[in-house]
Prior knowledge:
It is found in: Membrane. It is a lipid-anchor. InterPro entries: GerAC_N (IPR057336), Spore_GerAC-like (IPR008844), Spore_GerAC-like_C (IPR046953), Spore_GerAC_C_sf (IPR038501). Residues 1-28 form the signal peptide. One of its GO terms (biological process) is spore germination. This protein is α/β, with parallel strands linked by helices. The chain has 2 domains: 30-214, no CATH class; 229-357, GMP Synthetase, Chain A, domain 3. It has 10 helices and 14 strands. An 8-stranded mixed beta sheet has the order 4-3-2-6-7-8-9-10, sandwiched between helices. A 4-stranded mixed beta sheet has the order 11-12-13-14, with helices on one face. A hairpin with a 5-residue loop joins strand 2 (39-44) and strand 3 (50-56). Helix 8 packs across helix 9 (284-312).
Amino acid sequence: MSKLKKRTVSLSLIFMILLTGCSPFVENNTIEEIAPVTFWSVRSGENDQVILSTLTPPLLKEKKRVITMQVDLLKQGSKNFNLNYYREIKSGQVRMLIISEDFAKKGITFLINTLLADPDISQRIYLVVVNGNFDEYLQNQLEQEENIDYYLYRMLKHYEENDQGEITIANLHEYKNKLYTSYSDPILPVFKIEDDDFKYDGTGIFRNDKLLYTLSYLEDQIYQIIDNNYYLKFLPLSSFSAVLGQVRSDVKIDLNSSSDILSLNVKLHARLEEYRGDKNLFNEKELTTLTNELEAYFEKQTKELIKKLQDLEADPIEIGKRIKTPFTKPPTEKEWLQKWGKMKVEVSYQLDIEPLTNMKNEKE
Length: 364
């Protein structure tokens, strides 16, 4: 009976501690004394150091300003900020990590591991690569819109929640999974700063943790079609004087038994939103001709995109995962890259277009 009482008392004490929130580490969270930053900006500094920037204060009604520090380590930057700013910097509300393009090309593994090791930072934090000086852009924009950091966050969140493939969206969890998974390479969105414009530039293709290449506009649209379950709200095709809308795809990827031929079959459903070409699309024969031309165009562009990825020795589509079979030893990374670079690619598209049925033929 005495043992039972001891266990009961011990469990009661543990329960009381959990209820009261007692902890050997008590942090200061008084709102007037902290600055819960919403993003970190990282770029290369001198002597292999890191230039770390953020915007303060994010909450109180005071004039916002960009604060910057050159450090050796990310956590060192947080500490140094606290020594030079009258409020304690808190990272629990960080929603974005902005990485300069030159920094991303050198490798970002240490950034990823630092974020993953911080229990205060959510793995849903957005990762973004920027071509241009983000600190200068922020400083200029603060004069016009002091909530610029919030608007950037809302833009990323909008495209993530609405499953629109207009731009690539990637968070820490997704990047980490691809980085540490065999036969897989990460991707991140790349934005470009030109004067006062902050615009989407394309999908950044990584090899391990290094940025290798940013897809062009057309390459990016093809990538969105074949590598995710999102849809494209609009797909302008200037060479055909046409705009497709609500573009959705069903992609089937197969490898032959010797894993040297990749077959990519794409069923594409879209609505014709606008057309300024010379074909009469109310004529079924001419509509079929346009459909066949578009299918051939998509097949050609997709083959060129796959060839580009093979040349880069990058596999963001995770083709390599399909070569693993039961009872056989999977190839090493080097062996897979050699096979991937020489693999023959066959692409076929089946395009289902909803014509401009709501418009009357002017000739009728």
